[in-house]
């Protein structure tokens, strides 16, 4: 039985990847952080009591900021595959906590790579690299050969992680890959990322639980895919004959404005836009009510305007293709948040 070790198992991608690896017969070990409140909500449905005979999912306390915990887990688990998904993953927040973001996202990566060396284990390593590396657009669509131009402390930290992964591959002949993943979303997406923020707010507005949604830059364009499809690409990278770096994307781009329009329309609210800049508002055509307002606090000191990925290499060499279309993704997330809002309404006794 193959053993996998996942950092960031409690996050969006970690939960889908753990499901995928368990379905393929792996024994899965995940690093979790001590938290004052429960942080395992995304994996509770696959977790079994460790005393049960056929348990294959094991959780271990650790932290990417704590090299001794990383080293201990690598020595004890001896994984065949390591997926480094753990990160302070919010781009806007990285401007507030730049040093911490560097500690976890950049140095956390070298802690694992060095831990592999120290433990003397042979393993395959996946690094969660990001389309944020492309930042300021130098070429469209972006592919593996497009130069990087990071635009946030998050992206700068991920640039270090990208290059240190390449460096350990070249220096020590380690099987280490970077997946340069474009934005991917799901009903399990964190509530402060823009897609989930929109689907959650639109569902709550529809049911009268909330009046308004406050957003930042509506013009930013992203290549949005489904997280469930993207974890398959991570796994395929580690099954390949040789280690390499791959772009994973859908090849379609949409603006934040367009995403919002589609979500609200799917709930029967057609948006019309009034005003300009920070005064712009999204108004429901039927009722005339203002549903969306701009709040400058959500603007970033430096923005990434346009992301559009070319995943030809992943298709050609890994046989990977996205399965979920943009309208399917919008529907999946909106339906899920509507069901959550309905439960909230019932719990309120309204
Ligand atoms: P999430 O924010 O949903 O999950 C991040 C995970 O990292 C959580 O499990 C979190 O734990 C864990 N974590 C945070 N800090 C630490 C730490 N100090 N030590 C150990 N674990 C830590 O991110 P996603 O699932 O969306 O993304 C997974 C990875 O892929 C991240 O590295 C992200 O930067 C990268 N990425 C994501 C993309 C996307 O569109 N989703 C695109 C490209 C790259 P806790 O639950 O306790 O907070
Ligand atoms: P991103 O995702 O920064 O691309 O990083 P996010 O959903 O946070 O932002 C996407 C775009 O939407 C604009 N935006 C807003 N964003 C947020 N969060 N909240 C708002 O209210 C809002 N209004 C407009 C942003 O300015 C931005 O242009 C994600 C993360 O998962 C990273 O970890 C990952 O590496 C990249 O995707 C690829």
From TrEMBL:
<comment type="function">
    <text>Catalyzes the conversion of GDP-D-mannose to GDP-4-dehydro-6-deoxy-D-mannose.</text>
</comment>
<keyword id="KW-0521">NADP</keyword>
<dbReference type="GO" id="GO:0008446">
    <property type="term" value="F:GDP-mannose 4,6-dehydratase activity"/>
</dbReference>
<dbReference type="Pfam" id="PF16363">
    <property type="entry name" value="GDP_Man_Dehyd"/>
</dbReference>
<dbReference type="InterPro" id="IPR006368">
    <property type="entry name" value="GDP_Man_deHydtase"/>
</dbReference>
<keyword id="KW-0456">Lyase</keyword>
<dbReference type="InterPro" id="IPR016040">
    <property type="entry name" value="NAD(P)-bd_dom"/>
</dbReference>
<protein>
    <recommendedName>
        <fullName>GDP-mannose 4,6-dehydratase</fullName>
        <ecNumber>4.2.1.47</ecNumber>
    </recommendedName>
</protein>
<comment type="similarity">
    <text>Belongs to the NAD(P)-dependent epimerase/dehydratase family. GDP-mannose 4,6-dehydratase subfamily.</text>
</comment>
<feature type="domain" description="NAD(P)-binding">
    <location>
        <begin position="5"/>
        <end position="333"/>
    </location>
</feature>
